[in-house]
């Protein structure tokens, strides 16, 4: 059975690196846990690090966090759906919002539950996902300022999530100016300017972050140590907190090209030869016990540089081991480094065992 393993020590070191980084700059931050897909084994590892604020886009995952530790501040990081209002107020201490109507519903539900629900007003800044348009922000803020049982915790923005717009210094300065505008207009203080995600860490390392941006939401950098500007690993961090292991279930010398009349495969693709000169050639192929139900081949990379991924069907992955220096046999495990989306597929699969290393 294929399994994914989380390496505890590497996760601890990545967390310590980030926590030191943020504390030195007086930045509050929370961990985005949606990658873990609510897996309790891994959520416990996260909590054991000392995390006091967890963000997720699934209310069922936040409910699990509250069951494990009710004192952790939970943050729902997308605009709430109308039919989820009761659960949002029950399990999320904070939610991201962009609609006056939705915030009014949150206010009504918070009164029923005798709670104060905190909100972050998300502002559209070019990525064209969720967010109030800047020219409407003052009117929006005024409309919700005095709603009962609602605390406006701050303002924020999402960049790079849909259209790939990067969080440049200019973008974050603009977000800081919105804070100044609202504070001057309403004579209030805004605690959070939540403009930082994993993609903004390089700006912070270059001291290009506006000081007003004082709250970060971090997922990918924690689990993969990735500099999302360059694609490299941030110096001092690990990029292999997670690894995938799949078992060899067949090894056979086979032709490089399929034989017979070609049609569409069971997963909707058709074979196209890479090089007609290779027709008639053979290679040593191995089949692994994992397939498209659990992962996408483009998001994994064999640690053995001599292995080439050929293709996958729903339940099996075919690899070429001809150029590997290791002599594989049936039952051996092949290890893979995983990209963010690869881990998301694997962690969302009930068929992949989750382990701690």
TrEMBL record:
Say if the entry is tagged with keyword Translocase: no
* SUPFAM superfamilies for the chain: PLP-binding barrel (SSF51419)
Q: Which CDD domains match?
A: PLPDE_III_AR_like_1
Pfam families reported in the protein's UniProt record: Ala_racemase_N
Q: Which domain of life is it from?
A: Bacteria
Q: Which Gene3D superfamilies match?
A: Alanine racemase
Instruction: List GO terms (cellular component aspect).
Output: cytosol
Give start and end of each Alanine racemase N-terminal domain: 10-225
Keywords for this protein: Isomerase, Pyridoxal phosphate
Q: Which GO terms describe its molecular function?
A: alanine racemase activity; pyridoxal phosphate binding
State the needed cofactors, names only. Answer: pyridoxal 5'-phosphate
**Name of the protein this chain belongs to:** Alanine/ornithine racemase family PLP-dependent enzyme
């Amino acid at each position: 059975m294929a399994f994914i393993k989380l390496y505890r020590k590497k996760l601890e070191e990545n967390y310590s690196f980030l926590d030191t980084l943020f504390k030195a700059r007086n930045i509050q931050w929370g961990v985005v846990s949606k990658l873990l897909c609510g897996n309790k084994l891994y959520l416990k590892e996260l909590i054991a690090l000392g995390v006091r604020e967890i963000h997720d886009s699934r209310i069922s995952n936040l409910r699990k966090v509250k069951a494990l530790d009710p004192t952790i501040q939970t943050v729902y990081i997308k605009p709430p759906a109308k039919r989820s209002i009761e659960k949002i107020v029950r399990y999320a201490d904070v939610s991201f919002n962009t609609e006056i109507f939705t915030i009014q519903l949150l206010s009504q539900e918070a009164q029923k539950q005798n709670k104060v629900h905190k909100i972050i007003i998300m502002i559209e800044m070019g990525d064209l996902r969720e967010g109030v348009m800047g020219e409407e922000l003052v009117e929006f803020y005024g409309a919700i300022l005095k709603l009962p049982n609602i605390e406006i915790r701050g303002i924020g923005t999402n960049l790079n999530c849909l259209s790939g717009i990067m969080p440049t210094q200019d973008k974050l300065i603009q977000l800081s100016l919105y804070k100044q505008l609202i504070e001057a207009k309403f004579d209030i203080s805004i605690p959070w300017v939540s403009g930082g995600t994993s993609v903004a860490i390089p700006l912070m390392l270059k001291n290009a972050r506006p000081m007003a941006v004082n709250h970060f939401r971090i997922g990918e950098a924690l689990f993969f140590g990735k500099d999302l500007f360059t694609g490299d690993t941030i110096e001092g961090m690990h990029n292999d907190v997670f690894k995938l292991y799949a078992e060899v279930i067949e090894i056979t010398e086979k032709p490089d090209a399929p034989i017979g009349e070609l049609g569409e495969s069971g997963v909707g693709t058709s074979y196209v030869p890479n090089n007609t000169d290779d027709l008639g050639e053979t290679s040593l192929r191995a089949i692994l016990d994992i397939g498209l139900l659990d992962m996408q081949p483009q998001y994994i990379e064999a640690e053995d540089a001599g292995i080439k991924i050929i293709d996958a069907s729903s339940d099996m992955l075919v690899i070429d081991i001809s150029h590997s220096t290791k002599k594989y046999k049936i039952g051996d495990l092949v290890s893979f480094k995983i990209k963010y989306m690869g881990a998301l597929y694997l962690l969302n699969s009930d068929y992949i065992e989750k382990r701690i290393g």
